[in-house]
Design goal:
about 120 residues, mainly beta, seven-stranded mixed beta sheet
Amino acid sequence: QVQLVESGGGLVQAGGSLRLSCAPSGRTSSNYAMGWFRQAPGKEREFVAAISWSGGSTSYADSVKGRFTISRAGAKNTAYLQMNSLKPEDTAVYYCAAGPRAVTTALSYPFWGQGTQVTVSS
């Protein structure tokens, strides 16, 4: 079992930046790929970014390319999502997830964090 603890959400003005963190713990937690997803009110959960367990491979949704950067570092292989040039449409609950492969489909990730709210004001 892998537990994921997210932090870093909050309220920011359009054009601002936030950095989300996702710290994994539990059995062999550092060997999992990590993904970030988000869900806005009334919308389905959507893929944001993913990174392989080694950090050598990343992928992004078209809507965040060039603005968001996923990375991982540290002894726990914590995952980060650096979000720059934020837009009001980025407002959502952001979830991190862990799974065997860095893919874009939520169903491929068996472990999920509790979510953290990101609100971007115009």
